[in-house]
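Practice problem 4.
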C-alpha cells in the first residue's frame, strides 16, 4: 500500500500531482516522505445556502476530513471523484457518502434515520440535517475536545438532541420550505435566523463586487461554524448543568411536597424546556404545577408552569385574589407571612422565605381545585 519514499520535488513534478492540483495532496510529508492524500468534499456551486455551509463545516470537524478540500461544482464527473458529497447529486446513500435531499421521493427525517433517538421529529432533513444525524455525535465530541470537555454518554446523547432542536432543525425546515405552523401549533422554532444571514452573504443580483463565490462561501462556513460551535459549547457548559439540576429536583419532588405538583429547584437556573422534556421521559406530563426557586435578592419565587415553554398561560395560576398586590397588602389578603408580590397575571410571585413560598403555592393549588369544582 502507498508509494515508495520520494522527496517533495519529485512528488510535485509527478503528472498525478499536476492532474489533481496541489490541493489534492498535503504539502507536509511524514518522516518517511510519503505524502498524505487529502480528501475532497463536494457541494454545488453558484448561490449557496445555510445547510450546505453547515454540512461542510461539520464534516471538517471530523479527523479524517479536517484538511479536506471543498469542491463546488455541479459537474457529475468531478463530483464522482469526491470522497463525500452534500446538497447536490440527487442521491442519498450514507455508505457511499452521498448526502443530497432534493431528489424526488426523499422524505427522511431525524426520526426515520434515528428512531431510537427521538420519535417525534418530522421535519424533512436538509444536507445539514443529514450530516448531523450521521456524524453529529462525532462532531460534537470533536468540538468539545477543543475546550478539554469530555461529555459522558448520557450528556452527549442529550446535547445531540438539544443542538438538533435548537439549531439544526430550523435550518432543515427553512431549506425545505416547511411552514412553521400546523393546526395552530409550531412545528419548529426560529432560534437563530442564520439562514437569512447566510443568504445575505451572496452577491446581490446587480452587484459589481467581483469577490470569488468560493471566498464568500468560506465566509458562510465561518459564520455558521462559529455559531454552531457556540451552541454546542453552551449546551455542554450551560444547558446540560441546568438539566441536571431540574432532573434532580423533579426526581425528588415528592420529598418536598407529597403530591409532586410543587417542585423546588436546588439552584436557580433555566428550567422550562428541561421540565417538559423530563416530564415526557418520566411519563408525568402535566403533573407539575409550580416551580419554587431562590432569587438573587435572597427571597423565593413561585412560578406557575406554563402549558408550553413559550407561553404565559399556566397550568395553575397563583390565587386570583392576590394578583397585583404587594407586601403588607398581599400578606393581609393571603394570610401568608413574608409575601412580597403577586404578578397581575398570576404567573409568578415572591416570598421572603421558602416556607412562605410553599404556602403560596399550596393555597393556589387548593383555590384552583375549588374553582374547577
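Answer key:
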Amino acid at each position: 500500500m502507498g508509494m515508495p519514499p520520494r522527496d517533495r520535488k519529485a512528488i510535485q513534478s509527478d503528472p498525478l500531482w499536476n492532474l489533481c492540483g496541489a490541493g489534492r495532496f498535503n504539502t507536509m510529508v511524514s518522516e518517511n516522505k510519503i505524502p498524505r492524500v487529502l480528501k475532497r468534499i463536494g457541494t454545488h456551486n453558484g448561490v449557496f445556502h445555510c445547510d450546505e455551509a453547515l454540512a461542510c463545516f461539520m464534516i471538517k470537524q471530523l479527523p479524517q476530513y479536517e484538511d479536506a478540500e471543498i469542491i463546488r461544482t455541479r459537474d457529475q464527473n468531478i463530483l464522482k471523484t469526491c470522497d463525500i458529497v452534500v446538497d447536490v447529486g440527487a442521491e442519498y446513500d450514507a455508505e457511499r457518502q452521498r448526502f443530497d435531499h432534493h431528489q424526488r421521493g426523499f422524505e427522511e427525517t431525524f426520526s426515520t434515520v434515528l428512531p431510537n433517538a427521538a420519535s417525534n421529529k418530522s421535519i424533512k432533513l436538509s444536507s445539514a440535517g443529514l450530516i448531523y444525524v450521521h456524524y453529529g455525535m462525532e462532531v460534537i465530541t470533536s468540538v468539545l475536545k477543543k475546550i478539554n470537555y469530555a461529555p459522558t454518554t448520557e450528556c452527549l446523547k442529550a446535547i445531540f438532541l438539544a443542538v438538533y432542536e435548537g439549531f439544526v432543525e430550523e435550518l432543515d425546515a427553512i431549506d425545505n420550505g416547511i411552514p412553521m405552523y400546523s393546526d395552530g401549533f409550531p412545528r419548529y422554532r426560529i432560534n437563530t435566523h442564520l439562514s437569512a444571514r447566510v443568504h445575505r452573504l451572496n452577491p446581490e443580483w446587480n452587484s459589481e463586487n467581483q469577490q470569488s463565490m468560493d471566498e464568500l462561501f468560506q465566509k458562510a462556513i465561518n459564520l455558521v461554524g462559529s455559531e454552531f460551535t457556540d451552541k454546542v459549547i453552551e449546551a455542554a457548559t450551560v444547558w446540560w448543568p441546568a438539566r441536571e439540576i431540574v432532573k434532580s429536583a423533579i426526581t425528588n419532588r415528592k420529598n418536598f411536597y407529597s403530591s409532586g405538583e410543587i417542585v423546588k429547584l436546588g439552584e436557580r437556573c433555566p428550567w422550562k424546556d428541561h421540565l417538559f422534556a423530563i416530564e415526557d421521559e418520566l411519563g408525568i406530563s402535566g403533573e407539575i404545577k409550580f416551580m419554587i426557586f431562590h432569587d438573587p435578592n435572597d427571597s423565593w419565587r413561585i412560578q406557575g408552569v406554563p402549558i408550553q415553554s413559550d407561553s404565559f398561560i399556566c397550568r395553575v395560576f397563583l390565587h386570583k385574589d392576590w394578583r397585583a398586590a404587594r407586601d403588607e397588602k398581599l400578606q393581609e389578603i393571603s394570610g401568608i407571612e413574608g409575601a412580597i408580590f403577586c404578578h397581575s397575571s398570576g404567573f409568578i410571585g415572591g416570598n421572603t422565605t421558602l416556607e412562605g413560598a410553599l404556602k403560596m403555592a399550596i393555597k393556589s393549588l387548593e383555590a384552583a381545585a375549588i374553582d374547577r369544582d
